[in-house]
Design a protein that fits this description.
single chain; 221 residues; alpha+beta; 8-stranded mixed β-sheet
């Protein structure tokens, strides 16, 4: 997907996942993955917010003739990204992405991340991943880890961009086809040099989103 031909901006809303989101998340996950979680797994994860962190991304579709939204300063984990006030009149907000992780004993572990196929190629997966990294830092985790299919080079490239390296293999990790998973781990999230690298990656992401005429709105709920 590329920038709209008419030059209009696309607005995406990033917010914590709520129980009401779970049915839509489950539907989208089935479009993204061949081995989706049951809905009950998400409800269970959401019951422990002190340990688990889950987010959703929705496209905000404004009605025709809506006035331009005012900009305001961002204060969340993506503080360098553009942020808008809530538009006055709204239409549907389709779910286009989701992500989650748990944190325990100084480790943050990414459990899931997915973007609707028709919204891929815009940097939205990177927005979700960067939000998880930022939250892991806020929770004082030292490292971030994850598993990724050995065949998923696109995801591996994103994680490598953020400094994650392969630390091992989990044989036959995925139940749908017995595919192996790479175990990938970040540098120390407490390292000042790595945090500086994250700032540079944020800056580049801001530039990419601007080229795509995408606005990210962060909401606390």
């Amino acid at each position: 997907m590329s920038a709209p031909a008419d030059g209009t901006e696309r607005i995406y809303v990033l917010a914590p996942m709520q129980s009401d989101d779970v049915p839509e998340v489950s539907q989208l996950e089935r479009r993204c993955f061949s081995n989706p979680w049951p809905e009950s797994a998400y409800y269970r994860e959401l019951r422990e917010p002190e340990r688990n962190y889950y987010i959703v991304l929705r496209q905000e579709l404004a009605t025709a003739g809506e006035p331009a939204a005012e900009r305001e300063d961002a204060r969340g984990p993506l503080a360098l990204l553009p942020r808008l006030r809530r538009p006055v009149r709204l239409a549907a907000r389709p779910l286009v992405g989701f992500a989650g992780m748990w944190t325990l004993y100084g480790e943050a572990h990414v459990t899931t991340i997915g973007v609707a196929p028709e919204h891929r190629g815009l940097g939205l997966g990177e927005v979700l991943f960067l939000t998880l990294v930022s939250e892991a830092i806020r929770r004082n985790a030292e490292f971030l880890t994850l598993e990724v299919r050995v065949s998923n080079r696109a995801a591996q490239s994103l994680y490598e961009k953020y400094g994650l390296t392969r630390q091992g293999v989990r044989p036959r990790y995925y139940s749908d086809n017995a595919e192996d998973a790479y175990i990938m781990t970040s540098p120390s999230l407490r390292d000042p040099a790595y945090r500086q690298h994250l700032l540079e990656l944020k800056r580049r992401l801001v530039e990419r989103l601007a080229r795509e005429r995408i606005e990210i709105v962060e909401r606390s709920a």
